[in-house]
Model the fold of this input.
Amino acid sequence: MGQIKRRWNPREDERLKRLVEKHGAKNWSFISQSFPSRTEKSCRERWCNHLNPQSNHHPLTTEE
Done:
């Protein structure tokens, strides 16, 4: 059965950041166990697309 999609809240974001710091950005199966309503894919995508400080989240310039 499919899960209901909902926005990530700031508390979940902070917990995800702490778990990635502690366990690394590869162990999504383990990390997702701390989020009963989130999948491994959802956790990974939230980290990679929104929270990872090494990602460039700035809008593209006209040169790009």
